[in-house]
Each structure stands twice: as C-alpha cells, then as structure tokens.
C-alpha cells in the first residue's frame, strides 16, 4: 500500500492499540510512526513527512479534539479520529474541527485501512516537515 515514503502516524496512549495498528499497517506495506502524547505528535510532524495522522480523541491528560484543532491550524495532513466516543455529536465535532474521517472503537482493521486509502486518495501530497517546505517569496 505504501506508494510514498511518508509514514502513517498513530497517536494513541493505549499500547495494545498501538501494537495492533502498527503490526497491521506494516503487514500492509505501510511505514508507521507512533506517538503517545500530543507534543510527541507535533515533534514527529516537524521532522518527518506524514501522509495521515490517526488520532485518538481521549489521550491521557489531553484532548484529541484540541490536538486536531492545533494541528489543523498549521498543517493540511489528513486526520482520522479514532475513538470509543461514538456519539453522533462527537463525530460531528471531530469533522467540524478539521478531521477528515472518524472511526469508532472497536473497529475493523480492514475498514480503517480502507478509510486511510480513501483519505489518501483525496489528499494531494503528504505534508512535509517544516524544514522541507518550499519557501515562496514575492517582490524583488
């Protein structure tokens, strides 16, 4: 599945979910990066190209909705919210703040893979780390 060098970034503080998703995506030829906290996510996004962020809504001591909002303010990398919060309102809020898709736990790994592929089809290119983005200048 990996048609580029950009990684799929999984942001979750549940070691079982991280292990399951990492193994599943690697078995489908994906490069995977993991973060357990928001600041770790932002640090990885500054240094590595990521094609998609799979972001848990309920990280210990952090709010995935707030992290998505912060991420969306500086990056166009696609975001799939992953959460046990399956209420209609939660899904709508996630999409309104900038998530590209939303999937609830428990989830089918093949469905998540299909959603990742769909999000990647809709996105133009992977988000580049800040130090690799082209600079535009105007004037003389």
From TrEMBL:
GO molecular function: phosphorelay response regulator activity; transcription cis-regulatory region binding
GO CC entries: cytosol; protein-DNA complex
Residues with the 4-aspartylphosphate modification: 56
Keywords: DNA-binding, Phosphoprotein, Transcription, Transcription regulation, Two-component regulatory system
Record domain Response regulatory: where: 7-120
Origin superkingdom: Bacteria
Pfam families reported in the protein's UniProt record: Response_reg
Biological processes annotated in GO: regulation of DNA-templated transcription
Cross-referenced PANTHER family: REGULATOR OF RPOS, TWO-COMPONENT RESPONSE REGULATOR ORR33
The protein, known as: Response regulator receiver domain-containing protein
UniProt source species: Muricoccus roseus
Phylogenetic classification of the source organism: Bacteria, Pseudomonadati, Pseudomonadota, Alphaproteobacteria, Acetobacterales
